[in-house]
């Protein structure tokens, strides 16, 4: 279980996160909504160690992630995607996945099997020997997701997975994300401006506004919350 308790992140005099708390149970999906600049990506950056929190606590299964490097957080079982996918452009798709399995003590056959499974899942297996730079932006997002999933994470942080992805690939992404908690046993923190997808996928939703939690609940609760309608949806 991921627990974030009273997380504060300041940049100089600017408070990006003003004491945010959240709980993400195992094998569930939490959607994180909010207008531009409300602190969603900062939250992901604090969890995966890219940013040092100003104060507050973050634990995964009782282990504190505060002060840990991104690599150490990855070793604790946290995988993360970015708004602009970070893949190794000059490597083949297979090599991109093999890199994530280094130092896991697996045989070449096991690495090949796991890689093939996830490349099939994201429907990129036929391109396995191509360089990652030859993929479209949407396909690179799928490859980045596969690279995280081969490492068998406990928690997956997804930053705008649907942005710039064509509708066909978005449907595939939605299907994969929906299946991830059961198939891998991970939980998912999903940051997206795509309201329909967040409502459809999330077990619980948290809406942020100016670095604070504005509302929390099911899709139905969020959609009918007057504060959310006024502050976020602008209607
Ligand atoms: N490295 C940084 N240095 C200074 N300010 C930052 C930094 N990262 C984020 N911020 C500021 O923190 C606030 C929250 O930004 P953040 O990127 O977390 O918002 P967001 O909700 O993810 O927005 P978007 O939906 O546009 O991605 C913004 O005012 C942003 O300018």
Structural write-up:
Keywords: ATP-binding, Nucleotide-binding, Transport. The chain has 235 residues and is α/β, with parallel strands linked by helices. It has one domain: Rossmann fold (3-Layer(aba) Sandwich). The chain is built from nine helices and ten strands. The chain has helices at residues 40-47, 70-75, 93-100, 108-121, 137-149, 167-184, 195-201, 219-223, 226-233, and strands at residues 2-11, 14-24, 29-34, 55-60, 63-64, 78-80, 155-159, 187-191, 204-209, 212-217. Strands 6-7-8-3-9-10 form a six-stranded mixed β-sheet, with helices on both faces. The protein has a four-stranded antiparallel β-sheet with strand order 2-1-4-5, covered by helices on one side. Strand 4 (55-60) and strand 5 form a beta hairpin. The mean pLDDT is 94. Adenosine-5'-triphosphate is lined by residues 11, 16, 34, 36-42.
Brief sketch in words of this structure:
By secondary structure, the chain is of the alpha/beta class.
């Amino acid at each position: 279980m991921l627990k974030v308790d009273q997380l504060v992140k300041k940049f100089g005099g600017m408070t990006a996160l003003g004491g945010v708390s959240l709980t993400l149970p195992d094998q569930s999906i939490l959607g994180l909504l909010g207008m531009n600049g409300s602190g969603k990506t900062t939250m992901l950056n604090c969890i995966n160690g890219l940013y040092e929190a100003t104060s507050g606590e973050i634990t995964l299964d009782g282990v504190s992630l505060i002060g840990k490097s991104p690599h150490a957080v990855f070793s604790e079982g946290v995988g993360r995607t970015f708004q602009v996918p970070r893949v190794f452009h000059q490597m083949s798709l297979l090599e991109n996945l093999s890199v994530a399995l280094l130092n896991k003590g697996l045989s070449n056959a096991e690495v090949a099997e796991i890689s093939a499974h996830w490349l099939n899942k994201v429907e990129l297996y036929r391109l396995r020997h191509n360089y990652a730079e030859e993929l479209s932006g949407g396909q690179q997002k799928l490859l980045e997701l596969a690279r995280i999933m081969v490492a068998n994470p406990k928690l997956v942080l997804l930053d705008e997975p649907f942005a710039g992805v064509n509708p066909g690939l978005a449907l595939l992404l939605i299907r994969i994300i929906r299946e991830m908690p059961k198939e891998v046993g991970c939980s998912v923190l999903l940051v997206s401006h795509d309201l329909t997808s967040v409502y459809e996928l999330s077990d619980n939703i948290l809406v942020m506004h100016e670095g604070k939690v504005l509302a929390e609940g099911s899709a139905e609760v969020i959609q009918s919350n007057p504060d959310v309608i006024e502050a976020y949806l602008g209607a």
